[in-house]
Amino acid sequence: MEKKKAIDLIKLEVLDCLNNGDAETLRLSKQVDSDFPWKELGEYQNLAAFLSVALPLEFPVSELKDKVALKLYNMRDEIKAKLDAKKKLEEPPVLVEEEEIIVDEEITIDEINVPVVEEEIAPVAVAGRIEQKRIAEDVSIKTELRNKAAFDKELVEKTVKEYIKSHIEPELKLIKVNIKRNLIISLALFAISLILIVILFVMGLT
Amino acid sequence: MTEGKSLTDAELMLRIAGYDSKALEQLYDRYTPLLYTLIRRIIPDKETAEEVLSEIFVIIWRQIDQINFTNGNVYTWMVTLARNKAIDVKNRTAEKVTEEYSEEYEKNRILPKLSPEIEPVELETVLGMKEKIEGAIKSLTDAQRYVMELSYYEGLDESVIAEKLKIPSSTVKSKLQVAIGNLMKKISKTN
After folding, report:
1. Which residue in A19, A40, A47, A53 has the most chain B C-beta atoms within 10 A of its own C-beta, making it the best mutation to test that interface?
2. pTM score, two decimals?
3. What would the pLDDT profile of A192-205 be if each residue is shown by its tens digit?
4. How far from A37 is each of A8, A20, A34, CA to CA, in Å?
5. How far apart are CA A86 and CA B5, in angstroms?
6. Are the C-beta atoms of residues A118 and A134 closer than 8 Å to each other?
7. Which among B154, B148, B151 has a CA at the least distance from the CA of B91?
8. Cα separation of B191 and B186, whole Å?
9. Which end of chain B, N or C, is less surrounded by CB atoms within 10 Å?
């Protein structure tokens, strides 16, 4: 195809106004022509994308960001599966003699990666309750897995420590304060109950 | 956050490819006003436009391992993706598209296919060209501008535009070609 003809079709393509016949012609030209004007295609693609800059800017509601974050958070299993699959592909080939041991290691790798992946996926702006629940789950899983995973122990320990430091320690302090308060209240109630029993006993005697 | 501010669009995408949620948040903050503006121009309904915007980030998150950013042009990719998705939703609402929305469909019809020789463009650079771009668009004739808007923002094909304006399809084509050709000349000249 002549270069001029190709550019004329490119102009229509970037505005998404090619009819089926022209679209097919251009598609074939891209596949076959060694001198297809790729540079010009790129220039016109950029130009079409410039058009929207001329529109007066509008902004969505701020809550939308949280909604998006929640949607992405809900995709964590899908992403985790993708990452696991990718990791498995990247692993070196398994030797037959070491099959049993390697199978064990594979399981450990997957397990170890569970919390780390979730940490990466979790959107920053997810509402507080979800975040707290997730962190609590992550920490308990991580603590358990740390014992199993000797070869990646360092990484897991580091992650757990960071989590504990930033999220769990303040909560523990709060829990301790609550326990103390509840203990005092319990003791006070116990004392009141005792006094009441004594009073009732005395009243019964008299 | 401050670290992310200094990252280029391409660097952000590279981090997103490693499923870095903070990088995606940065990309959201950076691109949302422009993308939302474009989507609202195509789909006036506020709720649907917001839904489309959120879907765009879901697509990026889900398809990031399929996307080739070796050309470094995140801007054109993002805008084209938003435009494709918004037009698709518009056409589905109007029942002009009945093909099932599958992952395959998304790859073929929604994800942009940029030229391997495209020059990288940053959002900041394009925003700096706003006045020039507005000037170039204003320099078009009313007819050229209208036909271009019907095509790019309304997603109408040449036969529908021809019918709507009661002009031959060939005239629609030539008006579009002249319009975008003139824009290219104006913007290239000012740059």
Report:
1. A53
2. 0.69
3. 999 999 999 888 87
4. 11, 20, 9
5. 30
6. yes
7. B154
8. 9
9. C
